[in-house]
Amino acid sequence: MPETAIDKDTIKQRYREERDKRLRPDGNAQYIEIKEQFDHYLTDPYTPFVEREPKRDHVTFAFIGGGFAGLVTGARLVEQGITDVRIIEKGGDFAGTWYWNRYPGAMCDTAAMIYMPLLEETGHMPSEKYAHAPEILAHCQNIGRQYKLYDNALFHTEVNDLEWDGDNHRWIVRTNRGDEFTAQYLGMGTGPLHVAKLPGLDGITDFNGHSFHTSRWDYDYTGGDDKGALMDKLRDKRVGIIGTGATAVQCVPHLSDACGELYVFQRTPSSVDERNNHEIDREWFDEIATPGWQKRWLENFTQNQAGGGAEEDLVQDGWTDLSRMYREKMRELFAAGDMNPKKMMEAMEDVDFEKMESIRARCNTIVENQDTAENLKAWYRQLCKRPTFHDEYLQSFNNPNTTLVDTDGQGVERITENGVVVNGKEYELDCIIYASGFEVGTSFSRRCGFDPKGRDGIKLAEHWGPGMRTMHGTHVHGFPNMFIVQPTQGAALISNVPHNLTEAGHTIALMVLSLIHISEPTRPY
Q: Which is higher by pLDDT, 179 or 26?
């Protein structure tokens, strides 16, 4: 049977219509910064706070952030013999986003073989193609132990001031716990997704039921645990979740299994492709895990994603599938002698249409209620928003206790004492879960709580006033001995940011080692 032709003009028109519904002039201002009366949404439910004496010492390298960036950089420094490393982390342990995100069903969206750093160094084999959060957290803790990064770490600690001391060629680090110590070198890996936000809805403080943000999952209220145990305390509860991004896609199936009634409030559907997760076979892993295996896998994934001409696809996931489709189109153009920029752009557009049409069609084949299936369709290009991959999310809407409340791009209207209002209808709830994500695009100082002062007291925000300026995303002129570990301006492949962090950590360790060995060891670069 011949394939149905894709009506590109009609799809483009639908894309425009759906976009226009969701455009808001207030941008990030539509969200609530979590502070003051909303501080309880930031309480750490996982690790007790422990009092300690303030630090008044000196370290060779101080790193802000205990996620992948801090762990990889710290490990690479230790490998080079630089053991005087202090990681400052606002959470109660290492792991960064994987410390906070313990919601049910949390797992990596990129294959664990390339997502989890330092697998070869630690000898860890991921249990699944897409590892779940408890395994990733445990892996981070193992890195901390293996490289003795716990010895000097400061947890439940936030930096509130950084100042370059030009006379002594070192950084002064001050924290919210009274610390004031110095460091010859400074690293920052604060991450783009670590400050939770709330939707700016009228009445958000009026709700009389229970509420929490997904990054602070309240298992005391829901029952269950982050390892997948049934949330039995929700069996008689009416629960609403606001947000249908990557987090909701992963936790909705677990809520659907547990809740008396579940209402999923949707402003914009996610693109949900198949995941096909599976356990990793030990015999297969032992065969492929020869020296240098993870570097080969990282580079192979990048080659497949970035048109590098890889002869095989080691990862074989949704990301490389899209790239494979692009490459096939390019080969067809080349064979036809029609390889020009206009044709190449058209071919890439065609691939995107084909991919998104298949993802939209998946909704109809899985979701029994066809009205719900239509509302779950993502009307935008594949990389317009973060693609998701899941094998249970769409199926959840076949459960009689689970209702999709589509807001036609407008979002929730308001919150009342009793629940949530959409299109004038009130949904009475016992609990509201905010899957509203993290701050993106807000100012550096707002997200991090500090603004480094470099030479002559110039603040980083002031230096970046005209726009971010770095050398390879790592160095900033006027801020000596400071290294940034993040993807922006760093030739990053955003489908697997840990690759960028791994390369940056290795580079920083080698640079620090060379700087320490010059004749004037305290001289900044």
A: 179
